[in-house]
Amino acid sequence: MTPRGLRWAGAAAALAVLVIFPQVVTKPFPRHVMITIFLYAMLAQAWNLLAGYCGQISLGHAVFFGTGAYTSTLLAKHAGLSPWGGMLAGAVLAVLLSQCIGYPVFRLRGHYFAIATIAVGEIIGTLMINWDWAGGARGLFVPIKRPDSWINFQFHESKQNYYYISLALLLLALWVTRRVERSRLGYYLRAIREDQDAAASLGIPVAAYKQRAMALSAGLTALGGSFYAQYIFFIDPDSVFPTALSILICLVAVLGGVGTLWGPLVGAAILIPLGEWTRISFGGTGKAVDLLVYGALIMLVSVIQPGGIMALAQRGRRRTG
After folding, report:
1. How far apart are CA 308 and CA 42, in angstroms?
2. How far apart are CA 239 and CA 73, in angstroms?
3. DSSP 234
């Protein structure tokens, strides 16, 4: 079998294991950990489209996550719209918001761009805290509907269906990234990442392609936000708009390897179980031990191989032939 055939066979076997997993493991906690891994891998993959492939380091992606969460919840609460419809509406709204944000902030570069995205995130988070119709600082509960049904996007008896939905969202993010990688858009984004002045001199409309990357990234992130709201049943500005969430999404991708297809999934598979383990071992939020370990891992990877674990694995594979 050719190397490509082996890779496809391995991917098919891994997918089969993931599909069978909830049928074999029926306890809620392992399923919750897997759902969280899928969610953060998807969010990191969405961030990777903008930062990894286009080179625009955003630290304000929680804005799009919160937009998806609030849009689906508010539409369900005040208009009775199905959460599936709210999820699509949240993605559309996040894309529109990304274009409004992108127009001014893409005039900045490097650290200034990253700082601007933090500022935008803080402004929108503060606005949501003071918006009483949207629950203000108290937050919102997702309207509970029984019995369990796919139409209502609510499953109170088991996490199994949430597991499959989060897995489907992750596969969607991987498929979109794969399509971008092999398209003209992907080549243009990588050219912008390497040297945007050189890309512009070759006739690439840099600003337009940055906007496209941000739109894709924002739409996928909003889907994750809507899923989070339906899974947790409660949202507030501190849980869906914090800068800490944006940084965690960034850390997941950086650890695994930015600008790669599988890096965000590898990063999530390491960091999320680690965070859950520290939370269980030390109680509450884990006494920030997870953050200490996150920092140590990032420093270690940065020193040994700045490209992340995927680059480290590729280097090891080249050495072994």
Report:
1. 17
2. 14
3. E
Per the CB < 8 A criterion, the answer to whether 256 and 266 are in contact is yes
Predicted pLDDT at 158: 87
Q: In the chain, helix, strand, coil percent, each to 5?
A: 75, 0, 20
Q: What is the pLDDT of residues 261-273, one digit of tens each?
A: 999 999 999 989 9
Tell me: pLDDT of 189 over 80: yes
CA distance 266 to 252: 8
CA atoms of 250 and 63, how far apart (whole Å): 14
- CA 108 vs CA 105, 117, 143: distances in Å: 6, 10, 41
Average of per-residue pLDDT across 9-31: 91
**Model pTM?**
0.92
Cβ atoms within 10 Å of 65's Cβ, excluding its own: 32
Instruction: Write out the DSSP string of 138-151.
Output: G-EEPPP-SS-BTT
Q: Please state, in angstroms and rounded to a whole number, the distance separating the CA atoms of residues 131 and 146.
A: 29
What single-letter DSSP state applies at residue 258? Answer: T
140-141 vs 234-235, strand pairing mode: antiparallel
Residue 280 is encoded by which pair of tokens? Answer: 């269980």
Average pLDDT of the residues of the chain: 89
Tokens representing residue 281 in the block: 């071992």
22 CB neighbour count, 10 Å cutoff: 20
Residue 183 backbone phi and psi in degrees, to 5: -105, 170
Dump pLDDT digits (tens) for 59-108.
999 999 999 999 999 999 999 899 999 999 999 999 999 999 988 888 88
